[in-house]
Amino acid sequence: MALTKQTIIEKISTNNNQTPSQTKDTVETLLEIMKSTMASGEDVIISGFGKFQVNEKAPRKGRNPAAGKVMMLDKRRTVTFKCSGGLRDKINDL
Fold this sequence. Notes:
The protein is an alpha+beta fold.
């Protein structure tokens, strides 16, 4: 089962003796800071966790499989995540 934002909020509020609404505001603020930073093209690095990297994809030829037509796909940005060595070790520490 995946960890949801609601579960994160509940765990943080329990561990830090905060109300869920206080914790929700903090989590939402953190996510908005991360989104706006990446939207401006900057990477987000969280020490001990990993790096969210914004990548530029060039325009390229694509194909519509339903119609079989060749078309040009616009340039776009994507986000990739690379985990830190510490996180990788924790994940593989079974």
